[in-house]
Amino acid sequence: MNEETFINKLEKALEKLPTEERQEILEDFYEHFHVGKQDGKSEREITSALGSPNQIAKEILATYYLDRVEAKSNVGDVFRAIWAVIGLGFFNLVIVLGPFIGLLGCILGGWMAGVAFIASPLLVLLDFALYPDSFQVFDLFFSVALTGLGIFITIGMLFATRFILKAFTRYLSYNAKLVKGGLKHA
Predict the structure, then answer these.
(1) Which domain holds residue 140?
(2) 3 state SS for 119-148
(3) Residue 140 in domain
(4) Of 12, 91, 105, 181, whose CA is between 20 and 30 Å from 145?
(5) Where are the alpha helices (DSSP H) in the chain?
(6) What is the pLDDT of residues 22-37, one digit of tens each?
């Protein structure tokens, strides 16, 4: 593969990146080719040493999205980072997606429990509106107690969600470094 084909494939694979960052990356690769040619290497030798442009793009995208998640966490960036890390290798489908689905289920379950407990007085009032003869004061007091518990659960889930998101981001970074070439021991 020659320089032009390599750069075109890399540019196409990186089109999800912002233009400025994509141009910086492409300039780095132009520099690789320039230095390689000065050292007397052919374009084929340089491209074979660099590797597949698609694999390079996958690694760059994974790093980019992981950096974005670490800088400012939002749901879209987390999902993009997960898919980018999964794209690094088939093995990551199980290693990344499995824990993510499990953690997502725990987070959603906790949030749903907190919201349901907070909404329990509304359900008691709805029950009273539909069946006035079945109203008991105990139900109302118990639903108020559940509301307090729901508030505590919701506050706890706020902190738990933040912690789990940070921990999972570290796990994704570790996994991406491992897939890209192993961990370097200092």
Answers:
(1) 92-181
(2) CHHHHHHHHHHHCHHHCCHHHHHHHHHHHH
(3) yes
(4) 105
(5) 3-13, 19-38, 43-50, 53-71, 75-86, 91-118, 120-130, 137-181
(6) 888 888 888 888 888 8
